[in-house]
Design a protein that fits this description.
The protein is mainly β. It has 1 helix and 19 strands. The longest helix has 7 residues.
Length: 303
């Protein structure tokens, strides 16, 4: 019975991050990727282009390069008055990677790894706190690590990704370690971020870490899929630890999901939503609501 259930597990329907992950490709022509989320927040009566990424990537074995720009379009923060237009387009990443026999070294504008971006609802769990387009993001959401230019090296294959990263952002000197395993039945992602909490002192006592471990998979029966993700996060300096459990049922192009979030200093927050996938899953329309009173309608692009 165990092997029967194991044979039904797959990772084919898990969301793929084409913006932050440098995936192996044999295509020598430039490839365009984009990810963006537009929402209407019923709880604030505001429209937001919460984020938009556009990436151009080309593989010229044994090296590859890419460039990524990002932006947002914030309508307004109701409690704040400020002049228009807000800056909303910037260079996010420019990278060059050289690889041989699975070993790689890359020079990047965004060297520090991201938290797991997989999500089965409209609005993702990770958030850029410095982005006005996401001013109404839930307090339960996890802030992304600082985007820092630097270097990354490691080893990768079809079943694993192991790396060390180091960047420089206003003397913070963030560092990241990843150990990801990709099997046909499940994905196990582990990320450790080290940073200097007091950048002017450069004392080892001021270094702190944040760690995250995520396990995700899909149980597939013909046109019916059950997606699930279990994740734990710990922030040492704040002594915050929490968990995320996401589940979704997908039938054809319709997907209904639920997300349970818990932090030791906040308690529980439950979110649920529906997504309708269009055009080979590159476009989805959805609605999402939470127990803290936030309701979103929106459209998301990922390809």
């Amino acid at each position: 019975m165990f092997f029967l259930w194991l044979s039904l597990l797959t990772t084919s329907f898990l969301p793929q991050d084409n913006i932050h992950d440098v995936l192996e490709t044999t295509n020598t022509t430039p490839v365009l990727h984009s990810s963006g989320l537009f929402t209407y927040g019923a709880h604030t009566n505001t429209f937001h282009l919460r984020y938009a990424y556009v990436r151009l990537h080309q593989n010229l074995t044994p090296w590859q390069w890419w460039i990524t720009v990002r932006g947002y379009a914030d309508t307004h923060i109701p409690e704040t008055n400020y002049g228009y237009n807000l800056n909303n387009l910037s260079l996010y990443d420019y990278g060059i990677e050289i690889s041989r026999w699975g070993f790689f070294v890359s020079f990047r504008g965004a060297a520090i790894p991201r938290w797991n971006t997989q999500s089965f609802l409209l609005v993702p769990f990770s958030v850029r706190r410095d982005n006005p387009g996401e001013f109404d993001a839930s307090s339960w959401y996890l802030p992304e690590p600082v985007n820092a230019a630097g270097i990354r090296f490691g080893w990768k294959s079809s079943w694993g990704y192991f790396s060390y990263s180091q960047g420089d952002y206003r003397h913070l000197i963030p560092m990241g370690i990843t150990a990801h395993l990709f099997f046909p039945q499940f994905q196990w992602r582990n990320t450790l971020i080290l940073y200097n909490g007091e950048p002017e002192t450069y004392s080892l006592d001021d270094y702190h870490f944040q760690a995250q471990s995520s396990l995700s998979s899909v149980l597939s029966f013909s046109s019916f899929q059950w997606l699930f993700l279990a994740e734990g996060t710990y922030q040492q300096r704040e002594n915050h630890f929490g968990g995320r459990l996401e589940q979704a049922i997908r039938f054809g192009k319709l997907q209904g999901g639920i997300r349970a979030l818990w932090w030791n200093h906040l308690g529980w927050n439950i979110e649920t939503g529906i997504l309708v996938f269009l055009d080979n899953d590159t476009l989805s329309l959805g609605i999402q609501a939470s127990t803290e009173g936030k309701v979103y309608l929106g459209a998301k692009v990922d390809f």
